[in-house]
Amino acid sequence: MMFVVRYRPDEQSSLKPHHDASTYSIDVALNKRGIDYQGGGVRYVRYNCTVDADQIGRNKKKTIFPISGYSMIFPGRLTHLHEGLPTTEGTRYIAVSFLNP
């Protein structure tokens, strides 16, 4: 299954902590932070790991930087409780795919 998620401040700007209903989940960044939107990202709750472009150049521990066209793959339903961080301006798009081998 694959679908596109749209985050906007005046609609769905974020997602509460949840597990995906998949063995593996893949998220693909479809547009550019700082140009198309501000804010956004994902936080893996149990690991206190944030995927957020705000931290570029700050050398913060446990921070990963998304780039348009890049993807992340992670275990969906078992270990990776995660939440979508608020998009504060513009519109953020991600493609999401759930894999159940």
General description of the model:
The structure is a single chain. The protein is an all-beta fold and 101 residues long. It has a single domain (2-99), classed as q2cbj1_9rhob like domain (Jelly Rolls), CATH 2.60.120.620. It is 0% helix and 47% strand. The protein has no helices and eleven strands. It has strands at residues 2-7, 15-18, 24-29, 37-39, 42-44, 49-51, 63-64, 71-75, 82-84, 87-90, 92-99. The strands form three sheets. The chain has a five-stranded mixed beta sheet with strand order 2-9-5-6-7, with no helix packed on it. A four-stranded antiparallel beta sheet has the order 1-11-3-8, with no helix packed on it. Strands 4-10 form a two-stranded antiparallel ribbon. The model has no long low-confidence stretch (mean pLDDT 86). This is Fe2OG dioxygenase domain-containing protein. Residues 1-101 form the Fe2OG dioxygenase domain.
Q: Tell me roughly what share of residues is in helical segments.
A: under 10%
What is the count of DSSP helices, taking H or I runs of 4+ residues?
0
Q: Kindly, what is the distance between the CA atoms of the first and last residues, rounded to a whole number of angstroms?
A: 12 Å
Summarize the main sheet. Answer: 5 strands, mixed
Looking at CATH, which topology would you report? Jelly Rolls
Structural class comes to: mainly beta
Contiguous uncertain segments of 5+ residues: none
Order of helices and strands: EEEEEEEEEEE
Count of DSSP strands: 11
Indicate how many domains the architecture comprises.
1
Rg over alpha carbons: 13 Å
Can you give the mean pLDDT? 86
Task: Choose one word for the global shape.
Answer: globular
Under CATH, the homologous superfamily reads q2cbj1_9rhob like domain
As a percent range, the share of strand residues is: over 45%
CATH architectural label: Sandwich
InterPro entries: Collagen_mod_GT25, IPNS-like_FE2OG_OXY, Oxoglu/Fe-dep_dioxygenase_dom
Domain Fe2OG dioxygenase: 1-101
Pfam families: 2OG-FeII_Oxy
GO molecular function, one term: procollagen-lysine 5-dioxygenase activity
